[in-house]
Amino acid sequence: MEEIKIIEIEDTVYEESYSAHIQKNGASWLGWIPEVPDVNCEEQTQEELLIILAKELHQALVTEDEAWEKQIEEDIKAGKLDHLRKEALEDLRAGKCINL
């Protein structure tokens, strides 16, 4: 195996950069993104690898975002955030907030 290269991949939708670790392994290329453990793949060329990593990264971010949205909706319905609403209203009534 050759030395690991680190290449920045930017997800333009989420406007964030991630470090893709890529490595030549015989006739193929291995790649992974440590910040997003589910994103890893093996391709025949470095160019293909980077394209697939970017696609998998975006899909992982979408999946994570959807899971977060689902969880927050469930928490709202279950009343788990009611104490935060109450606290915010108390702060508003007490004049601790500024009008944006």
Radius of gyration: 21 Å
Structural class category: alpha+beta
Share in helix: 40-55%
Report the uncertain regions: none
- The percent range for strand residues is 25-35%
Strands, count: 4
Mean pLDDT: 94
Strand order of the largest sheet: 1-2-3-4
Count of discrete domains:
1
**Gross morphology:** elongated
In short:
By secondary structure, the chain is of the alpha+beta class. The protein contains 2 helices and 4 strands; from the N terminus they run ββββαα. It has one domain (5-93).
Describe the structure.
The protein is of the alpha+beta class and 100 residues long. The chain has one domain. It contains two helices and four strands. The protein has a four-stranded antiparallel sheet, covered by helices on one side. The longest helix is centred in the middle third of the chain and has 32 residues. The mean pLDDT is 94.
Secondary-structure map with pairings?
Elements: E1 5-11, E2 16-25, E3 28-32, E4 40-43, H1 46-77, H2 82-93
Antiparallel strand pairs: 1-2, 2-3, 3-4
Give short descriptive properties of this protein.
single chain, 100 residues, alpha+beta, four-stranded antiparallel β-sheet, elongated
